[in-house]
């Protein structure tokens, strides 16, 4: 079963849900930290990285001696990553999506692809949880290829938890696609509701079944719950606004270890998620 | 000489838009004949990324020799220089005012981008 944990914005407790769920699900389990701009699942798990892999995307390199400045490459590229105005083309690697199209359309065979590094993947074994973490290099804006590379480390048949990037843009879509179920984490506040609505629309449009975890219940109001009732979205778990949870978080401790009374909460979340997957 | 000014309007008395890549339109003035032409920058405005590059291609294809705007980012600057288009930045409020400064030689040509990428 592949469960993705996502959130319309950062700081809602998405990683808390992902790591605690990974702890209660039993081994073998793989936690894929796809929040590649700010991976933090490792803060809650011990263990040194045992494997490291550099991830690159192909970007064009132009051999100017072959190029006749015909401009085909620039006309083809939808991302303005290669530009030719009756001149030898300019390449903007940071905008390139690595589709390889410019090399294909170049009538002179002047374009070949070279690797541009975008980040690294680290794998560590943390007390029975295999954590695969992607880390985007500073200044790189191209998260989806790295997210896909992290997801390629998935082992079929193993329990898999995906910690998705926050938001509703391409990197999240790349992380959530192909999951059996998505858990959307939110807070019971007007902002939380707004972001949940966006995240729910995105997940629904991908055709992946989903449910909601409401974190810090006690702050805010009842509108998130009302929204879920109206839309027929199952609320899988309410996590109360408990100072001790925030304390455990700030010390890098798993809630289920630091506060054993919450273990049942996450086991119930798992059980309800399984039921929802079966029902879908 | 054909000069493009960034603007949200469509005449000389319209405001000069300080942004290059995401300016709604370019007003192209022929400094010799005084003729004025409006060019749409919808593609640049809609671009998720690379707005400056898109806009630079648009003005270069319109055959201008210079661009007058508020600020210009590095990618747009690279494309414009490659295409042989000079860049001038100014804080003039209207296109007419910017044109006047340009004509009187009150503007100096930019040697590099004056803002970083995301400003455009
Ligand atoms: S590989 Fe694709 S995205 Fe990259 S420059 Fe070529 S056409 Fe554009
Ligand atoms: S398509 Fe090939 S030959 Fe044409 S401008 Fe691009 S690199 Fe040069």
CATH class of chain B: Alpha Beta
Strand content of chain B: 15-25%
How many β-strands of chain A, per DSSP? 11
What oligomeric arrangement do these chains adopt? Answer: heterodimer
Q: Can you tell me the CATH architecture of chain B?
A: 2-Layer Sandwich
Q: What portion of the residues of chain A fall into strands of 2 or more residues?
A: 25-35%
Small molecules (ligands, ions, cofactors) in the structure = iron/sulfur cluster
Provide the succession of SSEs of chain A.
EHEEHEEHEEHEHEHEHEHHH
Largest sheet of chain B: 5 strands, mixed
Number of strands of chain B: 5
Number of helices of chain A: 10
User: Which CATH first-tier class of the largest domain in chain A would you pick?
Assistant: Alpha Beta
Descriptive overview:
The complex is a heterodimer of chains A (280) and B (120). Chain A is an alpha/beta fold. Chain A folds into two domains: 2-46 and 127-279, P-loop containing nucleotide triphosphate hydrolases (Rossmann fold), CATH 3.40.50.300; 56-117, Alpha-Beta Plaits (2-Layer Sandwich). Helices cover 33% and strands 28% of the residues of chain A. Chain A contains ten helices and eleven strands. Chain A has helices spanning 14-25, 72-76, 101-105, 143-151, 170-176, 190-206, 223-231, 243-250, 255-258, 263-279, and strands at residues 2-6, 29-33, 49-62, 82-83, 90-91, 111-126, 129-136, 159-163, 181-186, 210-217, 235-240. A nine-stranded mixed sheet of chain A has the order 3-6-7-2-8-1-9-10-11, with helices on both faces. Chain A has a two-stranded antiparallel ribbon with strand order 4-5. Chain A is elongated and about 70 Å long. With 120 residues, chain B is of the alpha/beta class. Chain B has one domain: Dinitrogenase iron-molybdenum cofactor biosynthesis domain (Nucleotidyltransferase, domain 5), CATH 3.30.420. Chain B has helices at 42-46, 51-61, 74-82, 95-103, and strands at residues 2-7, 25-30, 36-40, 66-69, 86-89. In chain B, strands 3-2-1-4-5 form a five-stranded mixed sheet, with helices on both faces. Chain B is globular. Bound molecules: iron/sulfur cluster (2 copies).
């Amino acid at each position: 079963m592949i469960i993705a944990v996502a959130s319309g914005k950062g700081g809602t407790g998405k990683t808390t849900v992902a790591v605690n769920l990974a702890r209660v699900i039993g081994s073998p389990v793989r936690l894929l930290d796809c929040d590649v701009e700010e991976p933090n699942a490792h803060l809650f798990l011990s263990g040194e990285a045992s494997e490291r892999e550099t991830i690159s995307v192909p970007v064009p390199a132009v051999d100017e001696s072959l190029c006749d400045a015909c401009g085909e490459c620039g006309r083809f590229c939808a991302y303005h990553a290669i530009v030719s105005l009756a001149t030898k083309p300019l390449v903007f690697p940071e905008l390139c999506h690595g589709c390889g199209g410019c090399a294909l359309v170049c009538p002179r065979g002047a374009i070949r692809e070279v690797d541009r590094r975008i980040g690294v993947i680290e794998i560590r074994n943390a007390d029975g949880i295999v954590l695969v973490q992607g880390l985007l290099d500073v200044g790189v804006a191209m998260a989806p290829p790295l997210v896909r590379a992290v997801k390629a480390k998935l082992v079929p048949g193993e329990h898999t938890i995906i910690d998705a990037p926050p938001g509703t843009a391409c990197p999240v879509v790349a992380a959530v696609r192909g999951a059996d179920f998505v858990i959307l984490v939110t807070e019971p506040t007007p902002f939380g509701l707004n972001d949940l609505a966006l995240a729910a629309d995105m997940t629904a449009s991908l055709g992946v079944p989903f449910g909601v975890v409401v974190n810090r219940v006690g702050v805010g109001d009842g509108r998130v719950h009302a929204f879920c009732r109206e839309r027929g979205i199952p609320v899988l778990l309410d996590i109360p606004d408990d100072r001790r949870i925030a304390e455990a978080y700030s010390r890098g401790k798993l809630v289920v270890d630091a506060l054993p009374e919450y273990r049942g909460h996450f086991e119930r979340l798992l059980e309800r998620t399984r039921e929802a997957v079966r029902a879908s | 000489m054909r000069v493009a000014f960034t603007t949200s309007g469509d005449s000389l008395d319209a405001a000069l838009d300080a942004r290059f890549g995401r300016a709604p339109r370019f007003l192209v003035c022929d400094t010799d004949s005084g003729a004025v032409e409006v060019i749409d920058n919808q593609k640049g405005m809609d671009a998720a990324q690379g707005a400056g590059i898109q806009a630079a291609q648009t003005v270069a294809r319109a055959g201008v020799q210079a661009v007058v705007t508020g600020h210009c980012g590095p990618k747009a600057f690279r494309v414009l220089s490659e295409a042989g288009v000079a860049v001038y930045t100014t804080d003039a409020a209207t296109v007419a005012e910017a044109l006047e400064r340009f004509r009187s030689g009150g503007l100096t040509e930019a040697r590099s981008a004056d803002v970083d990428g995301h400003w455009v």
